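Re-running Lipoprotein signal peptidase to confirm reproducibility after the cluster update. Everything else is unchanged from the original entry.
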Amino acid sequence: MMSPTGPEPQSEAKASSPVTSQSTPRWRRVGVVVALLVLLVDQISKAWILQGLDLPAKRSVVIFPWLNFTMVWNHAVTFGMFGGHGRWVFIIISALAVLGLLCVLARSRRRLVSVACGGIIGGAIGNVIDRLRYGAVVDFLHFHIGQWSWYVFNIADSAIVCGVGLWLLDSFLVERRSHHG
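Result of re-run:
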């Protein structure tokens, strides 16, 4: 079998497995790259918000009529849920979730699941870093239209939500293929 980097030795079990495809290791690597990119962009954006823009001092900056950068120290989980339960509980739960997702990624055979895992892993690690460094998550993206206002969130939160959405889409597509194919 050829991998993107050259010949790859095969074991008896791998060579005879009808489920293993040539691209499987590539999608796992893509998941790891997605996780690293999400983590990098998340941490760079938060560093810029805190030190470059000094958003904690400014509290809120209008970017567009529908977007502000608004400083929120989130001591809870996504969208402010379960606040007040202590940062170490969230750190431990997030670390366990990351470990579980790494196991899923290591076994993943589908592109969308690998990319979804990468997004969720990168986002979870980004928010854990915030909890360890600051005691809370740095949230700053605030979308609004007129009187309607969405929760304040960050790049990590976006990656987690998008990852869950991709995973649900993959499940839907697999289910649809099994009923129609």
